[in-house]
Specification:
3 helices; alpha+beta; 298 residues; Porin; 3-stranded antiparallel β-sheet; disordered N terminus
């Protein structure tokens, strides 16, 4: 019976993790389709973009030149229904995008001669600390612990990006009913996140992050019995990135990895402070100078 329960728990974890991964892939597919539609409509390419001191593009047409935003009452003038749908839903109201605000807002040292979108994909590592909430029936508490993991992301717009994050921690647990017992637990977080960069294509790039995913919590309760539970998590917070090299960036973020109540765990606020490094790649930029159209720049 015990083996059956353990097997069913692992199957449940796999199903939840598969749901998060499939949802992340669906989100990335939708964003890829949006970018392909934008390319078909003749929007300027992401490569070989230069910016002046105000952050405006010198070599590309104005991203905000098209008219007809769905909820502004002007109608959609495109003959592509998929593009009309995309323009009606993206970006959300009160937020910026490349199509409505150009490359940037002129803050945070606008990039010149390069762009975040020249290498839109990134693989990153992060490390920091996590301050966990009470884990089990107000009887098992967490101590602050090391928190680290990996990120795989894609900046699909000057103001927007997405990422998949895998984070891990092994907090020391304190039994509040039998204080002489101290054990360690294991936390694994997998989530898909959406990032909003209000300053656009700038060297100093603050952002707001919100996502959804699954968390696996492995610990021993106040009676010493091992508990393995999964919960829906909603990470949200703020951070900042620094364009250190064309292929390298640094980041610092503060997140609340909110975990909703599940079978054996209550709703928890797991705060994390982490610094990270990103390696950027993809989108081989091309120079569009008329005398050497095939020359590539980095």
């Amino acid at each position: 019976m015990r083996h059956f329960q353990r097997a069913s728990q692992y199957v449940f974890v796999l199903l939840k993790t598969g749901t998060v991964v499939s949802g992340s892939l669906f989100l990335l597919s939708c964003l890829l389709i949006s970018s392909m539609v934008a390319a078909d409509e003749g929007y300027p390419p992401f490569d070989s973009i230069d910016a002046d001191s105000t952050g405006n593009s010198n070599t590309c047409p104005d991203w905000g030149a098209w008219q007809g935003w769905g909820w502004m009452g002007e109608g959609c003038q495109s003959t592509n229904w998929l593009d009309c749908l995309r323009r009606s839903l993206w970006p959300p109201p009160l937020f910026r995008s490349s199509e409505t605000h150009g490359r940037g807002m002129g803050r945070g040292e606008p990039l010149e001669g390069t762009s975040w979108l020249n290498r839109p994909y990134h693989l990153g590592w992060f490390a920091g600390s996590m301050w966990g909430d009470n884990m089990h029936k107000h009887q098992v508490d967490q101590h602050n612990t090391f928190f680290g993991g990996y990120q795989l992301g894609w900046d699909f717009d000057h103001y927007w990006g997405t990422q998949i994050r895998l984070g891990m921690a092994s907090p020391e647990l304190q039994n509040l009913t039998q204080t002489q017992y101290h054990r360690s637990g294991r936390i694994t977080l997998l989530d898909a996140d959406l990032l909003y960069y209000p300053w656009g294509d700038s060297r100093i790039r603050p952002y707001v992050l919100c996502g959804i995913g699954s968390g696996r919590f492995d610990f021993r309760d106040e009676l010493g019995s091992r508990q393995i539970d999964t919960a829906v998590i909603l990470p949200f917070g703020i951070g900042i990135k620094h364009h250190y090299r064309r292929w390298l960036s640094l980041r610092l973020e503060v997140l609340d990895n909110l975990a909703f109540a599940s079978t054996d765990i209550p709703t928890m606020h797991n705060l994390s402070l982490a610094a990270g490094v990103e390696i950027h790649f993809g989108g081989h930029p091309r120079s569009y100078w008329p005398w050497n159209p095939s020359r590539h720049i980095w």
